[in-house]
Amino acid sequence: MYALVDCNSFYASCERLFRPELKDKAVVVLSNNDGCVVARSAEAKALGIKMAVPFFEVREFYERGQLQVFSSNYALYGDLSARVMTTLEELVPEVEVYSIDEAFLGLSGMRTEPDLTELGHKIIKRINHWIGIPVGVGIAETKTLAKLANYAAKHYPQTQGVVDLSKPGWRERLLKKTDVSEVWGVGRRTVEKLRAEDIYTAADLARADAETMRRRYSVVLERTILELRGIPCIGFDEQPNPKQQILCSRTFSHRLTCLQPMQEAIREYAVRAAEKLREEKRLTSSVSIYIRTNPNAKFEMKYANGATYPLPSPTNDSRVIMKIALRLLQGIYRDGYRYMKAGVILNALQPEDNYQADLFNPDLCTTKSLQLMKTLDQVNQRFHRGLSFAGQGQKQDWAMQRQHLSPRYTTSWRELKVVRA
DNA sequence: TCTGGGGTCCTAGGACCC
DNA sequence: TCTGGGGTCCTAGGACCC
């Protein structure tokens, strides 16, 4: 048996935690650059604000004082997420952290618990009491059904936040009244095709012939169908797999029209990506970058391009990655466009303690390089932006806008001035 | 005027091997 | 006239997730 625990309107709930006067108020949290809505309190949903709409489309509510708005504060959400996960780990033996706001629980070792619904309520109470974040709990025989149970727990208030689909008859009833688009793994494209063949509800999908559907769609959809029938196809993974790709990309605060700030941005993203790489204890042997104009603009010249450089020998050295990224930029940058976004991607990742070196090229992981990076990271862990490379830019006025950022309630950096003192 | 960031998995097709 | 069978590896692109 699995449970899925999912925090309600997670980012919005985090913000409200420190602003109790906003309880029962419409609250939204915006994406980076204050671009789109990425989290909505129930009251904001009631205003008709849809997920992922551009902020300018709902700005009116804000200006009329009907809507409280926050820029995303990932340091805060990450910190509260860790507290939620730790609390779950104290309650059940197996926890798979699935995203910042949800976790699958393995309940097989919980045979002594008389009633799983009771366990669900215990989880809700504990997390609410200890952390103050509301959660919902879905329980079922497969992950896909647990997701669906969780959806029901949030959707139907009479469940009080807990749905156990293993109860006789519950699964059939829920599948019948749930739109197929709510099923985990069934996205927009697939929904369109399914409707064309008269599959509208989760029950319709569960009834479809799995073999035929694999041929017509994919093995992924076949697995979803089996999971809806209670046959587990997706395993439980307590230890997250090591990352296969690391990406750092940002939309600029305003469009960039010349090379110099683009170079600063690429350097900055390369350094950030290299930092993440070292955090993961991995090396990269492939550096890619991409740049693009606004794909949504109707009356603008569009340009998007990317480039990749495979390294002969793997590295985690910010300097090497930065230099390569910059050279790649020279190759694809074209004058005359209004650039909106750029990114640096590291691929072909290998563990740092067991990597494939090159027979004919010098090993880039020299003691000197490793030591320097270690020192760089140690300084920057204690002092925010304590050490950076000259070319990253000091002012960075292309960096994202966060006009509605909340304070660092639970995290703190020592500022650079401490170093100077 | 104004639209995020960071990932995973699967498939088809090309190039290549014996 | 007529040209096999069985594989692997890599990449780009699509679909999906939160």
From TrEMBL:
Residues annotated as domain UmuC: 2-187
GO biological process annotation, one example: DNA repair
Statement: the UniProt record of this protein carries the keyword Transferase: yes
CDD domains the record matches: PolY_Pol_V_umuC (cd01700)
Domain of life: Bacteria
Disulfide bond as UniProt keyword: no
Pfam families reported in the protein's UniProt record: DUF4113, IMS, IMS_C
Protein name per its UniProtKB record: DNA polymerase IV
Species: Neptuniibacter caesariensis
Lineage: Bacteria, Pseudomonadati, Pseudomonadota, Gammaproteobacteria, Oceanospirillales
